[in-house]
């Protein structure tokens, strides 16, 4: 029991552990002599070998120093750092967060860690056992969640320290709960420190990174006599420092099934929704899938094949962005935030010819793409990359808007035999796209996604190299429908627009045309809003 | 104007970071190793291995002359010295009680968590100090200790369990 009288896993907070560790360090060092008081006589062998080590390190540091000096000179030329920092407290704050390192042929952006925000990271199951429903989280898809003493459709139970989601198999009435907590939380379930009940150690193989975690399995635990699997892990969310989380799965599933579910627990990182509301003439969005936690969309001009990409993601300590080139010709602002514009690294011959690389025509086959990169206050970093000039990129950027629309819920009513939801792709119902993948385990795949159509944008042209194989009959029945096939003939894409609901649908599959059309026919509106 | 963070100001002092660490701490690390090994040749080996480990993780060390860095160097040396003791006892075919090895840390005097942490065997104390005083995450700990990340998780868990047990044994409440 902890000091508040509740059972918990580890009763001391991170701050208390830090304070204790600091006290131990002080005590340890004070029991030792000062470094200056220690003057042992070392052997010749030791001195010789350490001297060689020092010389080697001196040589290594010299080459690192050269590159850093080049970077510092470059930065000094382009910034009035001292004056700006003195004037702008926000700049000093962002200085701590946003590190830009100039290397010989690329520039790297990354974050330095901050203190913990205290926000519980979000994790979810990447698959559910047969017959169990995903939580509704407001979509009404059939999952039910527990909130105190009552069950209701909608959000999971969550407080500052923990989150628990209840899933149900409507056919059998069986339940499955998945919960996570800060490990030093007073709300941590008692099972985490229940050493008296029968349990044994198990190994959870995490599929995402093939790491093994230690867990404890309790058979027929508690009043409900359900099997319980608990484990802990150290996780970092965003730019927070690492925290220890406790995870728990409870249900009438076997040990093996619970272990498999545990191995598929993945971080849920919902991105806010940003869309381009202005495009240069001739460009439209290509139907390309994006994955959390990164959003990527591509835009193509079908007449000349030019493309550009729009990417954004949450920055965290483990991630850096590398921008090819160091020809940083201009700084700019987007939405009031500082932005960097890079021209692609220009071959020497072209640079000589044109003098100023910024004058090199962007449609020259010799020119690599240009890049515009900026960050907002919420650690979202945005990148536009393509053969567009600075002013066009800035115009696109200034017309990016956050989409607050929620999605209605569409579901597939029929699938060919053998298909199940892919273990590694989740439905994402909070983003502007609903995105769900299925596989039959034998190489067959189906990918269903939909999103709001932007009225100004023309839609429905294929990924590069795909052929339009739309049957005439389909064009007649659904004006907007198009069927495309990949160059190698292995994949097909059926895309259509529900003009009444202003929704765009995409169905990618390895199945043949008739199967895809059958699947598309079965799509139905399950709920009007999230 | 974009903000740039100059990660390291380049000057003459920073040019030989390792050398400064070596010259500053070689004496005290030798003293630490001698406390455990009581043999100057073995103590020199432990110090050398500790500095090799410091080189591998040089980028994780900020200041060369701060308590955290000194603690880091002492902790690593203690660990290397215990490794040599363990190897020595294997060669001599002797039993090795790891919990009895390492530095004796005077209790900080809080009659609670800090006192319990000071009493822990060196391997548990090391990982707790590196994590909670030096602030290394589990990935960095895995690199420093040359173990897998999942082993770091297990070690941290065991260290905390040992902390709880030590507090209970001392009559404290959790």
What key attributes describe this structure?
heterodimer; A: 530 residues; alpha+beta; seven-stranded antiparallel β-sheet; 9 helices; 32 strands; globular; disordered N terminus; B: 174 residues; mainly alpha
Low-confidence stretches of chain B: 1-15
What oligomeric arrangement do these chains adopt? heterodimer
Main sheet summary of chain A: 7 strands, antiparallel
Stretches with pLDDT under 50, minimum 5 residues of chain A:
1-8, 72-97, 135-156, 347-357, 423-430
Output the radius of gyration of chain A.
28 Å
For the largest interface, the chains and their residue counts are: A-B, 78 and 71 residues
**Terminal CA distance of chain A:** 41 Å
Rounded mean pLDDT score of chain B: 82
Strand adjacency order, main sheet of chain A: 6-7-8-12-11-10-9
Structural class of chain B: mainly alpha
Number of helices of chain A: 9
Helix and strand run of chain B = HHHHHHH
Helical stretch tally of chain B: 7
Strand content of chain A: 25-35%
State the total count of DSSP E strands of chain B: 0
Largest sheet of chain B: none
Strand content of chain B: under 5%
- End-to-end separation of chain B in angstroms reads 52 Å
- What is the general shape of chain A? globular
Helix content of chain B: 55-70%
Rg of chain B (C-alpha, Å): 18 Å
Short overview:
The complex is a heterodimer of chains A (530) and B (174). With 530 residues, chain A is of the alpha+beta class.
């Amino acid at each position: 029991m902890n000091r508040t009288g509740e059972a918990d896993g580890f009763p001391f907070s991170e701050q208390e552990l830090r304070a204790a560790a600091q006290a131990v360090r002080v005590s340890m060092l004070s029991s030792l002599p000062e470094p200056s008081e220690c003057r042992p006589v070392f052997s010749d062998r030791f001195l010789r070998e350490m001297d060689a080590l020092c010389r080697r390190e001196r040589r290594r540091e010299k080459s690192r120093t050269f590159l850093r000096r080049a970077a510092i000179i470059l930065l000094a030329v382009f910034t009035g750092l001292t004056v700006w920092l003195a004037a702008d407290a926000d700049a000093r704050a962002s200085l701590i967060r946003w590190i830009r390192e100039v290397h010989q042929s690329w520039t790297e952006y990354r974050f330095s860690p901050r203190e913990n925000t205290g926000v519980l990271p979000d994790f979810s199951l990447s698959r559910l056992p047969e017959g169990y429903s995903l939580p509704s989280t407001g979509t009404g898809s059939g999952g039910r969640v527990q909130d105190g003493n009552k069950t209701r459709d909608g959000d999971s139970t969550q407080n500052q320290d923990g989150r628990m989601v209840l899933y149900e198999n409507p056919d059998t009435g069986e339940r499955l709960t998945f919960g996570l907590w800060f490990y030093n939380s007073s709300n941590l379930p008692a099972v985490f420190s229940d050493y008296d009940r029968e349990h044994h150690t198990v190994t959870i193989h995490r599929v995402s990174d093939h790491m093994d975690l230690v867990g404890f399995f309790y058979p027929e635990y508690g009043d409900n006599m359900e099997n319980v699997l608990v484990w802990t892990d150290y996780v970092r969310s965003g730019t927070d420092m690492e925290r220890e989380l406790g995870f728990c799965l409870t249900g009438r599933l076997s040990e093996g099934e619970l272990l498999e579910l545990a191995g598929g627990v993945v971080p849920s990182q919902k991105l806010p929704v940003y869309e381009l509301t202005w495009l240069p003439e001739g460009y439209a969005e290509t139907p390309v899938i994006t994955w959390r936690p990164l959003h990527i969309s591509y835009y193509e001009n079908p007449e000349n094949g030019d493309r550009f990409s729009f990417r954004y993601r949450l920055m965290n300590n483990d991630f850096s962005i590398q921008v090819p080139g160091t020809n940083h010709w201009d700084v700019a602002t987007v939405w009031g935030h500082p932005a960097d514009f890079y021209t692609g690294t220009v071959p020497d011959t072209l640079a000589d010819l044109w003098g100023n690389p910024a004058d090199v025509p962007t449609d020259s086959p010799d020119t690599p793409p240009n890049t515009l990169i900026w960050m907002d206050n919420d650690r979202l970093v945005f990148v536009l990359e393509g053969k567009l000039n600075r002013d066009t990129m800035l115009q696109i950027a200034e017309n990016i808007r956050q989409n607050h629309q929620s999605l209605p819920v569409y579901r597939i009513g029929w699938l060919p035999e053998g298909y199940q939801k892919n273990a590694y792709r989740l439905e994402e119902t909070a983003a502007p796209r609903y995105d769900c993948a299925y596989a039959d385990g034998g190489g067959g795949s189906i990918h269903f996604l939909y999103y709001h159509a932007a009225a100004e944008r023309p839609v429905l042209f294929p990924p590069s190299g795909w052929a339009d194989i739309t049957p005439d009959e389909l064009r007649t029945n659904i004006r907007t429908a198009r069927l495309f096939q990949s160059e190698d003939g292995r994949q097909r894409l059926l895309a259509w627009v529900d003009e009444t609901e202003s929704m765009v649908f995409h169905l990618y599959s390895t199945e043949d045309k008739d199967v895809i059309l059958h699947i598309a026919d079965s799509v139905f509106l399950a709920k009007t809003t999230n | 104007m974009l903000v740039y963070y100059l990660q390291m100001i380049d000057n003459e002092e920073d040019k030989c970071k390792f050398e400064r660490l070596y010259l500053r701490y070689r004496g005290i690390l030798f003293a630490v190793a001698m406390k455990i090994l009581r043999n100057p040749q073995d103590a020199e080996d432990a110090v050398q291995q500790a500095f090799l480990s410091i080189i591998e993780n040089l980028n994780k060390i900020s200041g060369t002359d701060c308590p955290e860095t000194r603690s880091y160097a002492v902790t690593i040396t203690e660990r290397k010295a215990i490794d040599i003791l363990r190897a020595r006892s294997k060669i001599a075919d002797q039993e090795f009680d790891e919990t009895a090895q390492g530095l004796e840390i005077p209790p900080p005097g809080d009659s609670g968590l800090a006192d319990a942490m000071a009493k822990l065997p060196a391997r548990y104390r090391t990982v707790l100090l590196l994590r909670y005083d030096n602030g290394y995450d589990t990935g960095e700990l895995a690199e420093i200790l040359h173990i897998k990340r999942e082993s770091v998780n297990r070690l941290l868990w065991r260290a905390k369990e040992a902390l709880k047990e030590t507090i209970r044994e001392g009559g404290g409440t959790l």
